[in-house]
Amino acid sequence: MTWNLGSGLDGKGLIVTGAAGGIGSAVCAGLAAAGARLLVTDRDQAACEALVAGLDGDGHIARAADLRDLTTHASLVAAADDAFGGLYGLIHVAAVIVRRYDLAEITEEDWDVQHDINLKAAFFLCREAGRAMVAAGRGGRIVTFTSQAWASGGMAGSVVYAATKGGIVTMSRGLARSFGADGITVNSISPGMIETPMIMTGIDERTFEGMRSQVLLGRIGQPDEIAAVAVFLASDHARYITGATINVSGGMLLY
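Given the sequence above, the corresponding structure tokens read:
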């Protein structure tokens, strides 16, 4: 095995969701630099195309989709399968957060939109991708994204978001059990405070500093520090890791 972070990814085809976001775009850059070919998807086609234009390598695909529409999942997987001669991996980053600091203000719509995108869509897309990998018979990688909120219960008005991210951890462990015999690993990344537009939206300075003060390394993280873990989990180096939840929080959480 070649000893570089992306060992084994050269020429492999992967789907990355939430690709236009802060973490998603960094994940795409890291995978492309490792030689992977990507189908990048987010809700905005122009944003996907701009991302693809800046990636290393060629043969990448930009495909807009609203993952809440479960009928889009099969077409995304089929497009990657056809273009890349088989789907090797899914890196599922897409998620939303609706902050409500007062529990009384949380609406059914708040609950539904976060569960539909963060958990429901995650399950059905991972299942669709896993089926394609099983059919190909070459193993594969599924990497999901949870959050420090799965263990902390959520901070800064994010109790509903936290519930979805707890679900991601449990779901990922169940998928690891379901797909393990076919050589498909399923792991979840748990970021802490990462400097992205999503985490910075709706947080006042006092709350932000209170959260930052809990980070043992004394700073918030950068998207490329999360991307490195995603590339590792997709690579040959992680071929014997499955069902794991990787804590990348700078010591905000300890487990």
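The first helix runs from residue 22 to 33. Try to locate this feature in the token string yourself.
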